[in-house]
UniProtKB/TrEMBL annotation:
<dbReference type="InterPro" id="IPR005531">
    <property type="entry name" value="Asp23"/>
</dbReference>
<protein>
    <recommendedName>
        <fullName>Asp23/Gls24 family envelope stress response protein</fullName>
    </recommendedName>
</protein>
<comment type="similarity">
    <text>Belongs to the asp23 family.</text>
</comment>
<dbReference type="Pfam" id="PF03780">
    <property type="entry name" value="Asp23"/>
</dbReference>
<feature type="compositionally biased region" description="Acidic residues">
    <location>
        <begin position="111"/>
        <end position="142"/>
    </location>
</feature>
<feature type="region of interest" description="Disordered">
    <location>
        <begin position="110"/>
        <end position="150"/>
    </location>
</feature>
Amino acid sequence: MPLNEENDFGEISISENVLKDLVFKSVEGYLKEQKVYNEKIQKDLQKSIKITINDDASVSISLKVPAKYGQNIVEFSKNIQKVIKDDLEKIAEVYVSNIDVSIENLVKPEELEEEYEEIEETEETEEETLENEESPESEKEDDEQKDKNE
């Protein structure tokens, strides 16, 4: 059941899939920031997110996430709830009535550390490649502009 709102211009409808994607992106960003993320976690997270649109047009969410070993699990879970609530209310203007977070397993930082180093190296290489690709074009444009001015 999509979320619907009527206004002077017509109707706005937000599907559960869109809300699920927003929740996923919010949690994904937080997990990456906390360095608790890899491909398996990504797939598990996508499968675990459940969205319910309540009769009062509020949204209930449940999801399963891993926590970082050694980190305060309750605080970690509260932060995930806050990120989801803030993002959904800001981006989709929906009222979030509750967010149930289930911690399914613990991830040791050293298990993911190597993956993050590889990801960061790949991102840096991609940025350098983009910069190198952009530079010659802008230099050509500058040279062409100089030729026109002369």
